[in-house]
Amino acid sequence: MADTEYATGARFFRALLRQKKAATGAVILLFFLALALLAPLAFPGDPTRFVARQNQAPSARHLLGTNGQGQDVLAQLALGARTSLFVGFSVGFLITLLGLAIGMTAGYLGGLADGLLNTFTNVFLIIPALPLLITLASFLPPGATTVALVLTATSWAWPARVFRAQTLSLREKDFVAAALASGEGSRRIIFAEILPNMLSLVVSSFFGNVVYAIGADVGLAFLGFEDLNKVSWGTMLYWSQNNSALLTGSWWTFVPPGLCVALVAFAMTMLIYAIDEITNPRLRSEKEIAGVLKKLGLGQRRSTPVLPYGNER
Amino acid sequence: MSDAPLLEARGLSKRFSVGLFGGSRQVHAVTEASFSVDRGKVLALVGESGSGKTTTLRMLGRLVGATEGEILLDGVDVLKAERGRASLAFRRKVQVIFQDPFSSLNPVRTIGHCLERPLLIHGHARTEAELREGVRGLLETVELRPADEIAARYPHQLSGGQRQRVAIARALAARPELILADEPISMLDVSIRMGVLNLIERLKSELGIAFVYVTHDLASARYVGDSVMVMYAGRIVEGGPCETVLGERAHPYTRLLVSAAPDPLKIAALGASAASEQGAPGPATAARRVEPPSLIDLPPGCPFAERCPEAMKACALSVPPPFDLGGGHWARCFLYGRVD
Fold first, then answer.
1. Best exposed site among A35, A119, B267, B336 by fewest CB in 10 Å?
2. CB B96 to CB A178 under 8 A?
3. Which residues pair with B97 in a beta bridge?
4. Alpha helices by DSSP H, A252-280
5. Which tens digits make up the pLDDT trace of B222-237?
6. Sign (positive/negative) of CA torsion B73, B79, B81, B87?
7. Of the candidates B206, B209, B216, B210, which has an alpha carbon nearest to the alpha carbon of residue B182?
8. Does A22 map to a domain?
């Protein structure tokens, strides 16, 4: 049996790749990352240029047809992935980083610092995010950077709260007191003693934040609060709606971007599940028992397995 | 070596605020603990759960701040000299071993790493080779062999007893003069407790390290302790040389504690030697009420008065001061004197 109970670093990722769920998630994610990276090579030129008659159904020339402005949907989808994934990953990263910095500082220091930071976090938690998002997005110069900053500013509070709670519980562990008694400094205790113990939480929080950021970015663009001349999955949906795609029956203008968002979110969720399974010994042992039972031809059962004599290893 | 005690606590108290918004109610975890630890000796601190043993130990190790009182290390009041964080010099002299060996080692670090850190921090090793040699030496001191193999392992690959030995090795890495041990054997299997106790004995006699040994187990206190203190409801009620205190049992609470020990052989042995001397009360007469007092509203008098079979009027009025019983033995009990 693998020693994955306290998986960390390289062992953590090796364990991750052995999982079916993780592999599914990783394959989908890699596909989209490759799509985003290779898009300018595959679809050179401006994706917003007029290429054919409007609202053409998918054909050999235009694999996903054309939209209401006579633009190639596939080219837009591929190039739009760049914007959407860039915003998604950068916001996910920023939120996680900011949440870690504020949450762990509050949780570790405690006392007055915790009181102040926690109040600050709570204020950001109760600010209604969507109106603030819309207000900020409509006042600041439009662009992916603006969207990324606005999304980060409105959504770091929840992860910060989660990380604070986890730090609070880890701080009480004796190994932290032992590090203190050995003479370790605060910075080392936070980053070398506590942080590695919440790595799985940080990684799954990161994936969750990416999903949230992609969704929020698409939502903002769909509502028209982003630079609408820029191609992204969100603006594709906006123009599709603007050109009454539902009325004209041109499903190929809104199904592909919607499906892409859903697939990326699905991939991330699979990764989160896999991480949960790796780091939660109970889920893992359930799976292992099921595997052993299957091998012995006993099938799935809920009760404690009784292995036939001579088969235990 | 001088005769002055290595460490002295004077009037050490700890109060925790409880309730919403750091409320006004206070838990008196430890009240005016005064004692001293001699070089190369083991001071056992016994008492039931919640009596303040661990808090006292954590104050000595400066893991929690004291509300009042002084801690003198080699005659220097460390709480005044270094406000806030303890200095590295203090950490080098005083090390701590924790109760639960399953949580005192960081699960994501190897044993080797966990022992290298204090060696590096306290400047006992600098190069890779010195570190490796240092770790091997430490593991061999605590009888973990093969040392190189153990050093490469993670805590969850070791047994409880092995982990506690690693925790002791980590404390030794700083080359301390005093080790504060918080119930180091209570989470271990009975079969391996003796080994850890013998290790403590050996470190004391071979390396001259002093210990404060916190426990609720009288037998082990008697086994390793040179002197013993009995705590009840945050106060030290009796103290002195181990054999005298556990043999004479001056304070009624000490008698209760001894009579409550479940080991039939021990009760018989202690009963035979002590009962003939001063007619200790049997278990039946020992306790009138089982619950210790709430640490939030401490009674004005002796905290044990309500449970005490020998309680007098004076007991409920004021806290008895320590009365000297000779030979370094003392007890906070009005049975042994009066204040006018």
1. A119
2. yes
3. B181
4. 255-279
5. 999 999 999 999 999 9
6. positive
7. B216
8. no
CA of B103: how far to CAs of A178, A217, B188, in Å? 10, 43, 13
**The two three-digit tokens of residue A240, written as one number:** 């599709």
pLDDT band of residue B277 (cuts 50, 70, 90) is very low
Q: How far apart are CA B82 and CA A5, in angstroms?
A: 41
- Measured between CA atoms, the residue of chain A closest to residue B109 is A193
Residue A21 lies in a domain: no
C-beta atoms of A184 and B121 within 8 A: yes
Query: How close does chain B come to A9, measured CA to CA in Å?
Result: 9
Alpha-carbon distances of A255 from A34, A47, A77, A86, A236, rounded to whole Å: 21, 18, 11, 21, 10
- Six-digit token string for B325: 């019983």
Query: How far is the alpha carbon of A12 from chain B, nearest alpha carbon, in Å?
Result: 11
B150: burial class by Cβ within 10 Å (0-12, 13-18, 19+)?
A: buried
Sign of CA dihedral B270, B276, B281, B282: positive
Q: How, if at all, do strands B25-37 and B76-77 pair?
A: unpaired
**According to the 3-state scheme, what is the secondary structure of A26-46?**
HHHHHHHHHHHHHHHHHCCCC
- Structural domain total, chain A: 1
- Region of A309 (left: φ > 0; alpha: ψ -120 to 50; beta: rest) is beta
* B37-79 tens-digit pLDDT: 999 999 999 998 888 999 999 999 999 889 999 999 998 999 8
Average pLDDT, chain B: 86
Report the DSSP pairing between strands B330-331 and B323-324.
antiparallel
B269 burial level (CB within 10 Å; 0-12, 13-18, 19+)? exposed
Total CB pairs under 8 A between chain A and B:
66
Contacts of A179 (CB under 8 A, 6+ apart): A188, A189, A193, B106, B117
- pLDDT at position B318 over 70: yes
- Dihedral in degrees, nearest 10, Cα atoms B327, B329, B332, B337: -30
Residues of B with CB under 8 A from a CB of A: 58, 61, 63, 88, 91-92, 95-96, 98-100, 103-109, 117-118, 121-122, 154, 156-157, 167, 170-171, 173-174
Domain that holds residue A245: 44-259
Please report the ipTM that was assigned to this predicted complex: 0.83
Mutate one of B85, B109, B111 to test the A interface: name it (highest A CB count within 10 A).
Answer: B109
Per-residue pLDDT of chain A (313 residues; tens, 9 = 90+): 334 344 456 666 777 667 788 889 999 999 999 999 998 888 887 887 777 788 888 888 888 888 878 888 888 899 999 989 999 999 999 999 999 999 999 999 888 999 999 999 999 998 887 788 788 877 888 777 888 888 898 889 999 999 999 999 999 899 999 999 999 988 899 988 999 888 889 998 999 999 999 999 898 889 888 888 888 999 899 998 888 888 888 888 899 999 999 999 999 999 988 888 777 666 666 666 777 777 777 655 555 555 555 444 4
CATH number at residue A121: 1.10.3720.10
Residue B55: name the closest of B47, B46, B64 by CA. Answer: B64
User: Which band of pLDDT confidence, cut at 50, 70 and 90, is reported for residue B22?
Assistant: low
Would A34 be classed as within a structural domain? Answer: no
Q: Which residue of A has its CA nearest to B94?
A: A181
Please report residues of A whose CB lies closer than 8 A to that of B61: 181
Cα–Cα–Cα angle for B186, B71, B219, rounded to 5 degrees: 25
Beta bridge partners of A81: none
Chain A residues in contact with chain B using a Cβ-Cβ cutoff of 8 Å: 3, 5-6, 8, 173-175, 177-184, 193, 196-197, 199
